């Protein structure tokens, strides 16, 4: 288990997590089998990264966790273009703009701090489409959720709205009701313990 002593305590007291890997293993195995039966082996394999994160998000309630995995699977099936064929090199340009990033250190509660620099949306919207943005969001969130500290302690989002280009999204190719819905659906389907959203300026 790749957790600090403090995070292990948080997992046990706040998330109802079994105290040892030996106690967790049969529960996790049974959950994975349940998910495979519900969504199919191929999709379950694709979403294996989300299994433990979803159990923790659901406080080890198998019914809730199963429902959340089915919701994630439905999103992935409906929106396969956001998941298929990803490689880190595809996203270098988006990362370099710096609209979305995270701090190298955590809060005192162990939360990951995601940063959104709103002023950079103007340049981002000129260079990338809504599909590009959602592919990057899926890639980035999936990568972050491999970290067990983030699975347990969750994340907060800090947004800089100073000089925010309010109409920039209107210029992005593919922006519209379906794109906005997919964006919110992904945030709701990803197994992230979102602890708060804060905006400044």
How is the secondary structure organized here?
Layout: H1 5-14, H2 21-39, H3 41-46, H4 51-57, H5 62-78, H6 92-97, E1 100-102, E2 112-117, H7 121-127, H8 130-144, H9 148-153, E3 155-160, H10 177-189, E4 194-200
Parallel strand pairs: 2-3, 3-4
Antiparallel strand pairs: 1-2
Helix pairs in contact: 2-5, 4-5, 5-10, 8-10
Give the CA-based shape.
globular
What order do the SSEs take from the amino end to the carboxyl end, as H and E?
Answer: HHHHHHEEHHHEHE
Question: Mind describing the biggest β-sheet?
Answer: 4 strands, mixed
Averaging pLDDT over every residue, what do you get? 95
Rg estimate, integer Å = 18 Å
Span of the ends, CA to CA: 40 Å
Quaternary organisation: single chain
Total number of helices: 10
Query: Any low-confidence stretches, pLDDT <50, length ≥5?
Result: none
Give the fraction of residues assigned to helices: 40-55%
Give the strand line-up of the largest sheet. 1-2-3-4
Account of the protein in words:
This protein has 201 residues and is of the alpha/beta class. The model has no long low-confidence stretch (mean pLDDT 95). The longest helix is centred in the first third of the chain and has 19 residues, at 21-39. The chain has a four-stranded mixed sheet. The chain contains ten helices and four strands. The protein has helices spanning 5-14, 21-39, 41-46, 51-57, 62-78, 92-97, 121-127, 130-144, 148-153, 177-189, and strands spanning 100-102, 112-117, 155-160, 194-200.
């Amino acid at each position: 288990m790749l957790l600090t002593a403090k995070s292990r305590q948080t997992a046990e007291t706040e998330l109802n997590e079994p105290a040892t890997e030996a106690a967790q293993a049969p529960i996790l195995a049974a959950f994975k089998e349940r998910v495979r039966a519900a969504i199919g082996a191929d999709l379950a394999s694709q979403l294996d990264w989300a299994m433990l994160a979803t159990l923790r998000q659901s406080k080890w309630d198998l019914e809730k966790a199963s429902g959340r995995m089915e919701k994630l699977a439905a999103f992935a099936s409906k929106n396969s273009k956001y998941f298929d064929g990803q490689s880190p090199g595809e996203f270098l340009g988006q990362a370099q703009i710096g609209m979305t990033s995270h701090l190298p250190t955590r809060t005192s509660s162990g939360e990951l701090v995601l940063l959104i620099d709103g002023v950079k949306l103007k340049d981002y919207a000129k260079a990338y489409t809504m599909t590009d943005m959602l592919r990057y969001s899926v890639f980035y969130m999936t990568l972050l959720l491999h970290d067990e500290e983030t699975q347990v302690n969750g994340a907060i989002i800090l947004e800089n709205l100073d000089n925010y280009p309010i109409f920039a999204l209107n210029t992005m190719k593919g922006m519209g009701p379906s794109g906005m819905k997919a964006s919110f659906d992904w945030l709701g389907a990803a197994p992230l313990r979102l602890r708060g959203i804060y905006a400044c300026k």
